Amino acid sequence: MKAKLIRALSYGGGLLIVSFGITMTILADLGTGAWDALNVGLAMKTPFTVGNWVIFIGIILIIVNALITRSRPIVLSLLTIVLLGYFIDFWLIVVFQHTLFSGLLLQLMILLLGIVILAFGASIYLQAEFALLPIDGFMFAIRDLLGVKIMIAKTIAELIALIVAFLFGGPIGVGTILVTFLLGPLIQWFFPRVGKKLNWKTAH
């Protein structure tokens, strides 16, 4: 019972922290990760919110992933993207509405803080070993389709998102570069340390 509770809290709490980190990178206004830039760009061009587009793009990727891998869509991933989408809108619309950060140094600090928080949240969410985000599923689908290494598949997926984000005027800048190169190593650093603290597999 305790293990299930820890797993549920890791899943929900981790996604909440991830959404806060993403929000910080958006509010820093120095550029966000490729997929977040795509969601922001689409939100700027349509009546829908950033969180809405997290859900819409997630649904599209669930379908695309199923077609590429010739398997059934991972329906559980819907819960992940719905939670993440609503959490992001909660921070952007309810908590930080009309919040603007000015000054390059402050913006850079907010951006770096957001990346660290995002990595920390991801390391918690991943401990639950529940449904992956469709973005991660897309990366694995590309790997299987092209027979390439996971880092190459990740690069291809990021480039696709970056190109579409650019076409829709998404926030691409120094933040995009920092997110791309810092996020992976930070998650790797946090993951085993968070795992030792949670240790839900041995909890009773």
Automatic annotation (TrEMBL):
TM region positions: 9-28, 48-68, 75-98, 104-126, 146-166, 172-191
Extract the Pfam families matched here. DUF6198 (PF19700)
Task: Give the keywords, sorted.
Answer: Membrane, Transmembrane, Transmembrane helix
Q: Does the keyword Transmembrane helix apply?
A: yes
Would the keyword Transmembrane turn up in this protein's UniProt record? yes
Protein name (database record): YitT family protein
Cited PANTHER family? INTEGRAL MEMBRANE PROTEIN (PTHR40078:SF1), INTEGRAL MEMBRANE PROTEIN-RELATED (PTHR40078)
**By its UniProt entry, which InterPro entries does this protein fall under?**
YczE/YyaS-like (IPR038750)
